[in-house]
Amino acid sequence: MKKKLAFILVLTTLTTAFSGCGSADDKTSGENSSHITVGITQDLENSLDPHKAEAAATREILFNVFEGLYKPDSNGELIPAVAESYELSEDGLVYTFTLRDGVLFHNGETVTAEDVISSIESCAGTNGDTPLIPAFSNIVSIEETAEGEVEITLSERDPDFMSYIASVKAAIMPADQTDADTNPIGTGPYKYVSRSVQENIVMEKWDEYWGEKAYIENVTFKVCADSDSLVMALNGGSVDMMAHLPVSQAQQLSDDFTVLEGTMNLVQAVYLSHDFEPFQDERVRKALCYAVDRQAILDIVSDGKGEILGSSMFPNFEKYYMPELSDTYSYDPEKAKELLAEAGYGDGSLSFTITVPSNYPQHVDTAVIIADQLKEVGVNADIKQVEWNTWLSDVYSERQFEATVVGVDASNLTATAMLSRFSSDADNNFISYENPDYDNAYKSALVESDDKAQTELYKECLTILAEDAANVYIQDLAEMVAIRKGYEGYEFYPLYVQDISKIKPVE
Amino acid sequence: MKSTTFRIGAAIAGIVLLLILVGCIWTPYDPAAIDNSMKFASPSLAHPMGCDQFGRDVLSRIMIGGRITILTAFGTVILGAGLGIITGAFSGYFGGIIDTIFMRTADAFLAFPSVLLALVIIAIFGTGELQLVLSLGIAFAPSFARVVRGEFLRSKGLCYVQSAKLQGASHMRILFVHILPNIKSVLISALLIGFNNAVLAEAALSYLGIGVQPPKPSLGGMLAESQQYLFSEPLLCIFPGTVLILLVLGFGLMGDGLNTKAGEV
User: Fold this and answer.
1) pLDDT per residue as tens digits for the range A30-89
2) Strand partners, A462
3) Rounded to 5 degrees, what are φ and ψ at A144?
4) 3 state SS of A72
5) Does the domain at residues A266-476 carry the CATH identifier 3.10.105.10?
6) Any CB–CB contact under 8 A between A382 and chain B?
7) Quick check: A196 pLDDT over 70?
8) What is the topology classification, in CATH, of domain A17-48+188-264+479-505?
9) Separation of alpha carbons A492 and A415, rounded Å
10) What is the number of alpha carbons within 13 Å of residue B204 lying toward its C-beta?
């Protein structure tokens, strides 16, 4: 009897692979080009209210339904959306937005100043709740000053304020809506139709959209939770488009697909806990940086695709990205050995554990290669895989780790999104980084009013992180987007966004 | 006389064990050595089973991975059978309150799947081979206890036990010197089946990423890693899968062979 188990094990492997994420029956693509099925690997949060959206996976989909007063475009610039323009007072405290005429919500009602005020207020927590967008706690008042004009007054200058205004979290919703969790009503190019939890979310083109209307009539976002079956889903025809594909899977797609190459907009690094004694020594951290051959990691994990990084900023964030930092530490095992010996950790006396979330194969693979490379310089790195939730609680919240390989991304288009976590008193400083120079540079950047000078200060922060070898920075991972031939126009954003309205069927 | 089934099983398991034994003293390559130029190399004379996504030699990894899989399975069976034999023997022989306590506890353990139980134990003690053995051993103990209890219950009324009692042998002597050797055929087949289940459980846990940690190879871990490349590089999955099947098939046939023989007697 028991020997059957062996076959069952193999069968299970095969069935999970073949089950894909749906049958081929719902194949409607190709024949009817005004429909597209987009595969997503993570279901949305329970609530579809954009103000409450925490997960990047929720925001990237809701981007199609909602808009703020402004919104980001694919170059990372902020463009007017519900507002037509804004003016900033000389002291930098009063923003006056002129609303666009005749913008309609998906329920057919016109957007009024009242809707804008109630939406911003709910994000700012003016009614006494915790602000949903912490930066909005800075708002003193929101008023309608004239017909179609809204004035927001801040208590202190915030050069990043517009970036927050343009995020999906600051979306404009009808003031009188009570069921935002289940029935999202926005002003975006797509209108919410229905949702089936863990299965799909359906949208249709919003014909009254104020701007350039979407091309494709119906969009279905289909949840494909099993990341191993993505290739089957695409090749089998049940899904037309999929973002965030690892290179290894993109290579297995048939000729029916165009594969676009971008980067994930995150900073993958061996994040080092500065509470762990050996890593408090700058020489040890530098030695690790010298011991890691980044190019080899890119070659093995993603066929040489991806961008090598030297600090906590990714290339699409052009304003702050400093490509020269990538060369701070060249691959030099001899130098690594010297530095280790100097620090008293010569010849095999340094051992540590790399904790990796097991649901991210690209991070696990990177950790495996790094452990192998560190062996060359006499450092013994063990790998410990943990579940994502364990990672969040043990590593991120409790800071119980020695080193971890993950990717850190930006939740909005501000430098603080990447840099605030390294100031010594930040709650999310999970590596317990403490460097007075960094704190000074970061604090002066926050209060600097001149944009250029501020950028310089942020760049100084990045340089400090690189030169101090705060972490072993590796890469911005390559990200593949597969889209069935017959569709075109996909655009990469420097944020976590899937903009379906730009995609059009090929004539 | 051993049955034919047993012989076939022994031959199959022997081949795999031989491969693994050779791996203890010699492997063609370092199983953890990464070599990008050999990434996804096809089987050749230099690499009979090809190379994986890191350019590591698959044959070397199977030799070492098989050893880790088998050792954890052995550990699991020793721990599980040890606990099971002791509790089973006492329950079966003494009966009464001891029996109730041990067997109801065993029932409680058996009420949910052993892999799930192992998952809980790993969640508490963390990942690693020792934890794996510990968790699977505890999870497997109740099923051994059941088998052993049944045998002791049956044996305690038999004449040779009665005569040992009359001669004044102590309980411990009767339990482990008189009865235990007499139930060995049932015990051995239970051990073989248990061993098989342990191999599969280890593979399943490593497959889930919570068993043996990379870069250490294990058969289940290799299956899990190769799943991403199932369609472009199917051989990566087929080789460790085949070894796993042969191993389990071999031990399973051996167990079946012994069972038949015990049945004939």
Assistant:
1) 444 589 999 988 788 888 999 888 778 888 899 999 999 999 988 878 899 999 999 999
2) none
3) -90, 110
4) strand
5) yes
6) yes
7) yes
8) D-Maltodextrin-Binding Protein; domain 2 (3.40.190)
9) 19
10) 21
Nearest to A61 by CA among A220, A239, A238, A237: A220
Count A/B contacts: CB-CB distance under 8 Å: 93
Token pair 């919703």 in the structure block, residue: A173
Q: Kindly calculate the radius of gyration of chain B based on its CA atoms and give it in whole angstroms.
A: 21
End-to-end Cα distance, chain B: 12
pLDDT digits (tens, 9 = 90+) for A102-115: 899 999 999 999 99
Who's near B50: CB < 8 A, 6+ residues apart?
A: B40, B41, B42, B43, B44, B58, B235, B236, B239
Amino acid at B79: L
Sheet strands (E) in A373-435: 379-386, 403-409
Whether A368 contacts chain B with CB within 8 A: yes
ipTM of this model? 0.73
CB contact under 8 A, B228 and A382: no
**Cβ contact B65:B123 at 8 Å:** no
> Three-class SS of residue A356?
strand
In chain A, how long is the greatest CA-to-CA distance? 82
- Only one residue has tokens 């991210």, namely A360
d(CA A327, CA A283): 17
> What superfamily would CATH give domain B4-19+61-264?
MetI-like (1.10.3720.10)
Helix (H) / strand (E) containing A352: strand A350-357
Task: Judge residue B12's burial from the number of C-beta atoms within 10 Å of its C-beta, 0-12 exposed, 13-18 middle, 19 or more buried.
Answer: buried
Inspect the interface and report whether the beta carbons of B210 and A385 lie closer than 8 Å: yes
Q: Any residues with CB less than 8 A from the CB of B1 and at least 6 apart, and which?
A: B261
Please report, to the nearest 10 degrees, the dihedral formed by the alpha carbons of residues A189, A195, A197, A199 taken in order.
-80
Q: Specify the fold of A66-170.
A: Dipeptide-binding Protein; domain 1 (3.90.76)
Q: Which residues contact A214 (CB under 8 A, 6 or more apart)?
A: A189, A190, A205, A206, A500, A501
Over residues B106-143, the pLDDT tens digits come to 888 888 777 787 778 877 877 778 888 888 898 889 98
Domain extent listing, chain A: 17-48+188-264+479-505, 66-170, 266-476
Q: How many CB atoms lie within 10 A of CB B251?
A: 30
Interface touch A383/B215, C-beta < 8 Å: yes
d(CA A431, CA A405): 12
B213–A383 CB contact, under 8 Å: yes
Q: Do A97 and A150 touch, CB atoms closer than 8 A?
A: yes
Structure tokens at A112: 């009024």
The answer to whether B245 contacts A6, with C-beta atoms less than 8 Å apart, is: yes
Give the CA count within 13 Å in the CB-facing half-sphere of A115: 24
Instruction: Flag whether residue A465 sits within 8 Å of chain B, measured between CB atoms.
Output: no
